Amino acid sequence: MILTAPALSSSVSELHGMTLSSVSSLTINPEPVVQFNLQVPSRTSQTLHDSGFLALHILPPVQDSVRLARAFSRGTQGAHLTKPFEELRPDEWRYFAANGIKIPILSLAERVLICEKHKVFRVYNHELWTCGVKEIVDNASAASSGGLIYYNRRFHTVGNKLEQ
């Protein structure tokens, strides 16, 4: 999944996001909560702490999703700060307004989970984030594919549904 952080300025070069290797459901009741971890220090982490909101994108298993996942996976490269939104065409993303903030969301996503920070735990050089799912943005033009999966250094799709 790709995580995007709210816009804290009007500059596209200041937008943050990252590809997450693992996102999982934590609870359903009393509210849906998901969990993921990220390495720190991180500009994206700081933006998330400052705003308290984020978007998680479920991408279809297509070549453009692989391109996006790779663009958002570069992180900080030495002293060079990567700027994935500068690599995107204007039609590949838009702002979603939630609780008085603007969160960039990717047009290609089948679903986007709009989340609010619940609790964050620091473990050595990582943070474990738990976030309440506040809203789901459904891209009506996209069929549900099961998402894009990364394992064994390659991207894959989820297999067909098993009949029972």
UniProtKB/TrEMBL annotation:
UniProt signal peptide: none
Presence of the UniProt keyword Cytoplasm in the record: no
Cited SUPFAM superfamilies: FMN-binding split barrel
Protein keywords: Oxidoreductase
Flavin reductase like domain segment(s): 1-157
GO molecular function, one term: riboflavin reductase (NADPH) activity
InterPro entries: Flavin_Rdtase-like_dom, NADH-dep_flavin_reductase, Split_barrel_FMN-bd
Entry-linked PANTHER family: FLAVIN REDUCTASE (PTHR30466), FMN REDUCTASE (NADH) RUTF (PTHR30466:SF1)
Name assigned to this protein: Flavin reductase like domain-containing protein
Source organism: Ogataea philodendri
